[in-house]
Amino acid sequence: MLLFFTLITIIIDLFYLFVSLKAVLKNRYSILHLCSILFFIIQVLPLVVDMFNDVNSLGTHTKYLYNALTDENTAYLYNLFAIFVMVGLTSTAQKFAHKRVNIMFQRTKAINSFYRLCIVLLMFAPVAAVILAPTPEIYTNFSYFYTHSYNPLAVEYLYHRLVMPYIIYLSFLSILVYYYLIKGSTSKNIIMLLSSVICIWIDGKRGLLAFLIVGILLVDFIKNQTQSNWKLVKKGALLSCVFIAYFAVYSMFTTKNTDDSFYETYDAYFSRESEVKLSIYSRLNGADMLPYDGATLLYDITCYIPRFLWEDKPYGFFNYLTAYAYNGHAETFMEGSNFQVNIWSEYIANFGLLGCILSLLFIIGIVRVSERSNVAMLNISGSVFVLIYLFFGFELIVMVLFYAWLYFFVFKRKSSLHRTRTTY
């Protein structure tokens, strides 16, 4: 019976996937159509992959994750969740697309030489951060802290963990702004490519490349208001292949995940099914994942309040979910280990069924405000934020994007940019 219901879920969601793909290819789309496509890839496609692999292998070292993946009640509720969100995203996207407003931003002429120079300097800010680092030479090694032993209390590691991420993500945002504002040419593309490579090298992880790819494609979609999106789809496929190749080379170089099977690697990095099921399982069995409902969402909106001013402030959601996967409670966090989370797993863990509804409304609200705005950076930051939040937790890069969106929403909405309506 469960297998039959899973097949029905996949078929229903496939229909809505095709609706979203058709809207994108015909250039009558909302960002919610892209959310729908991404949701299918990371939440529904894993149901297909599960059919050809042994789910038991995913919970070898995590008892409660194993319980969640093998619990039938959890599986049924997950299928209902997959249908509800896919229908909600796509149906709302169709309504937004019919009222879609094209925004013709005057990019290059509005930016003088001084601001262009500032943007370029910010793109290369990580170079200055390396020069000022306690031990600059460690950054001549790719992914140093993942390929060498180190003292977690050493000043080099603390600098890399507490200072460097902010510089890298400032550079990341500057790269997207530069890509949007400046018309393409060989020299400008080289500048952008060079700054991106430097950021990825210094960051030493895989996620930043994924963020850049999502951001670049979104900027392309926003700028490409009147032409067919087939070229962008091809570009997206090419960049996805680049990321997969980088992922494989990175894993070999750092020896991360080299002992894992394909299924384990896929579940950890390209799927969020397990995490959402774990959140559902927690709500069905005592809701012991969090200290109280809404705890991690409270952390999300107060993340910049120093802990010494609020000793009982909650922690980021991934800490609780990881601890629950191992122990069935979150009283002791797992140092050096963390599961990847996203908006669905976090909201469901906090509020159950209500969390599923609230998360959907939150995404729809952000997209609606962003798409109706004539402020370019509000549109871009909101679009990148919701897509990355579908795949990653409310951690540093997602926080930065959200507060950037909030800044543009509060202070820049009244900017006078040229706006025209599309005729269909």
From TrEMBL:
The chain crosses the membrane at residues 6-24, 31-49, 75-93, 114-133, 163-181, 193-217, 237-253, 347-367, 387-411. The keyword Acetylation does not apply. It comes from the Bacteria. The keyword Transmembrane helix applies. Keywords: Membrane, Transmembrane, Transmembrane helix. This is Oligosaccharide repeat unit polymerase. It comes from Bacteroides uniformis. The lineage of its organism: Bacteria, Pseudomonadati, Bacteroidota, Bacteroidia, Bacteroidales.
